[in-house]
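Exercise: predict the fold of this chain.
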Amino acid sequence: MMIENRTFDELAPGDTSQIRRLCTQDDLIAFANVSGNHNPLHLHDYDGDGDGLQEAVAPGMFLGSLISAVLGNVLPGAGTRYRAQQFTFHERAHAGEELVSTVTVLSKEADTGTVTLETTIRRVSDDALILSGEALVEAPKRKLHYSTVDLPGLIVQRHRHFEALLAKAEPLPALRTAVVCPEEPNSLGGALLGRDHTLIEPILVGCARKIAACAEEMGRSLDGIEVIDLPDHHAAAEKGVALVNEGRAHAVMKGHLHTDVLLRAALDKAHGLRTGRRLTHVFVMDVPGLNHPLLVTDAAINIQPDLKTKVDIVQNAIDLALSLGIEQPKVGVLSAVETVNPDLPSSIDAALLSKMADRGQITGGLVDGPLAMDNAVDLAAARTKGITSPVAGRAEVLVVPNLDAGNMLAKQLTYISHAEGAGLVLGAKVPFILNSRADDDMARLASCAVAALHHARISGGGA
């Protein structure tokens, strides 16, 4: 967009301009980092004044910067230099409120080239006066036309979606979970962390000697936690599954053993946890800059799924998305292109899955495909391609063509986009929590929270 400034000679008393801005939690976090003002009163997840509420009050100088934005961008615009600014604060602004910043020319001084302007900020919802004051500036002398400045992008890296899932899950009863072979610090630590947050109540199955030594190394107590001593990994996996069949556990967590050992026990025809659906893996990802959780499936179990398996992959992901509170999950089935190409099998599968959802063979969500990655997650890209769809540009679930693609996508989001991923295996009688040794504490907690939320939905809320 092209804009132009207003030179000193063009300004007249009464000239006015304004800018609207939604004050977000990310704005206040970015301002705290840039300014060095870490007053917890201004941060959304802290009680900064001890009154039991999380305020997220906009800092005074953040509001001042909104006035500066009008002066520097619009009136007078490019080339304006501050000489003085006076503010009076009447009310507090908070994250989530839309604000309108207005400047109005009061007078000009020809001998100094300065302009005095009235400055105000009001809250849009109720027109409350937040700030008033006066600015003294040197107005530009030369006319400038320029496009709005395209600054490098700034994304605040935090766990907004995982934090919301934790807040939703923590009031639930602790999910009784068979933790199989937690025999090193990462796997045992994840189970104990989930217990600390009352998300799970672990039953530890594995080599009792190794588990105890690991707890001692971590400086943690196992008091009150049941430990079942089974040093053999195959036997431990079978016992974890048996605990579910006995009704003593309602989830299984993978510890320090191979995934295929655990899943082989789950798939045992006589004593396993089969339901008739294929086991499928879902990454629930908290991607910085994305305004909703993103589910990626299948990135860990089904190597080259056929259409029948993809039906279960899609349905399992929809069911999980519903458990997380997504009311009508939007599922984008990915291919390299957004049109059906007979030479590209993934595009044919995507189109068939979309039609199967239309005919009620897949339920609970909106399914569209084939979609390329760009027009699945970016609305502008979808519009550029002329795609009209409630899913295109808004997908909350991404279904990949095969394990290679899913694994690459999940790791790109993790290591390039700095996303966090919570891994879950679905399709069995209970959810399986799969953590990676590279996961941090938030990812481990989120995996427990996702499992608890899913179990609560499918079981009617029992532990």
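Check your answer against the key: The mean pLDDT is 92.
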